[in-house]
Amino acid sequence: MTRPAKLLLRAVLAATTLASPMAAAPPADNRAAETKAEPAVHHENFADDAAIRMEGEKRFQANCGRCHQFPHKFPPRMILTVERHMRVRALVTEDDMRVIIRYLTQ
Amino acid sequence: MLLGSPALAVAQTADEERPVPILTGSAGFFTNVDGGHTELAPVISPVLLVPIGERWLVEARGSFEGEFARKNDNGPYGGTVGKEVDYAQLDFIANRYVTVTAGRFLTPFGIYNERLYPIWIRSLQREPLIYPIATEASSGIMLRGGFAISAKANLNYAAYFSTLSTINKLESDRTVGGRVGFFLPGPRVEIGASFQQLLQEERTRASGFHFAWQPAATPLNLRSEYAWSGDKGSGYWIEAAYRLSQVPRWQRVMRHVEIAGRMQQFFGHIDEDEAEEYELPEIDTQQADFGLNYYFMDGLKATASYGREFSSEGNANLWTVGIAYRFAVPLGRVQ
Prior knowledge:
Helix content of chain B: under 10%
Largest interface: A-B, 37 and 49 residues
Radius of gyration of chain A: 18 Å
Strand content of chain B: over 45%
Number of domains of chain A: 2
Structural class of chain B: mainly beta
Number of strands of chain B: 16
Structural class of chain A: mainly alpha
Distance between the termini of chain A: 46 Å
Largest sheet of chain B: 16 strands, antiparallel, barrel
Oligomer: heterodimer
CATH topology of chain B: Porin
C-alpha cells in the first residue's frame, strides 16, 4: 500500500471511531466525576446492552455476591434506596454502584 | 393540555429516579440443641431505610430475639425476648471518598458484624466464638468510604469515635477505632485490619484481621477473621460456603443447595461473670460446624447445621434447624 493510501485509510478509521456511539460517550473518569451522589436510572437504548449486562453482572458478583445471593427483582426506586444503603454499609465504590444500578434496573 | 404533557412526563420521570423509603429486614425461627438442651429462638430484625435528597440516608435496625427453653428440661417452654436498637444513624455521602455517619452505628471491626450478621445472609446461623470482641454498638461519629486506588484495587476504610452511653438499650463505650481493607476485584480477594482503643476503665485495645476470597470460576465463598482483645482473649474462624450449582446431576435441586463449614478456636481465660457479660467462652474452646442451606427463592432459605464444641470443661453437640426470610416493602409509590 502506498503512503497516501495508508494516510487516507488512517483518516477514514479515525473518523469512523470518532463517530461511533462508544466514542460519543463520556470517558469513565468524567462520568465518575459527576457530583451527584448516585446516578439517575436511564432507560436509553444502549448500543451494546449485552456488554453492559455482562459488566453489571461481573461487578454485582464481585461486590454484592461476596455477602449474598442474587436479589429478587425490585422496582428501580427500591433499588436506588438499597444501593445507597449498600454504598454506606458495604462500601461499594461510586463507579461500581453506577454500573450495578444500571444492570439491576435494565 | 398539549403544553402540559411534556411537563407531566418530566415530572414522572424525575419521580421514577428518586429512591423510595423501604422497610426491610429479616425474620426467622430456629431450634437450637446445645449439649442436649433445646432452645426455641424466633427472630425479627426490621430495617428502616429513608433516603433524603441525593446524599442523605437515615437507617435504623432493631432486633427482637426470643430465647425459649423448657423449665427443668421437661416443663412448659418459657423465656424472654431481647429487644435492641442495633443502629439508628444518619449518613451523609459527602463525595466519592467520604461518607459521614452520626448516631448509633455498628462498630466496623472485621467483616462479620457489619456485613454477614443478618440471618438471611449468614451461611451458618451460629455466630463465631470471637464475634463479641470489639463489636458492641457505638454511639458517635464515623467517617467511611470505598474507592478505587488503581484499576485493580479498591480501598475501603472506616474511622470512628464513640462516646459513653448508659441509656437503657442504647449502651456504648467510649472508644476510638477503625478498619482499613483492600479489595482486588479481579481475583475477588479482600484483606483488611481493624483496631479499637477503649478510652475508659482498663483502656484496653483490640485488633483484628480479615480475609475473604470468592473465586470467579466456582460458587465458593471463603471468609476468615482473627481478633485479639487485651482483656477478653483472642481467636479466629475460617468458613467456606459452596453452592452446588455446578453439580451436573439433579440441577433443579442442586442449584438451590449450599453446604458450609467453619472451623474456629478461641483462646482465653476469663471468669464466669465476664464470660456471661461478654458472651464469650470462659476457657480455650475449639468448634467445628457443618451446615446445609436450601434456598427456596431469594431471601428465603431453610437451614440446618451440626457442630461439635471441644473444651477442657467437656465436649458438646450443637444442632440448629430453622428458616430465615428477608423481606422488603416500599413505603411509597414505586411506579
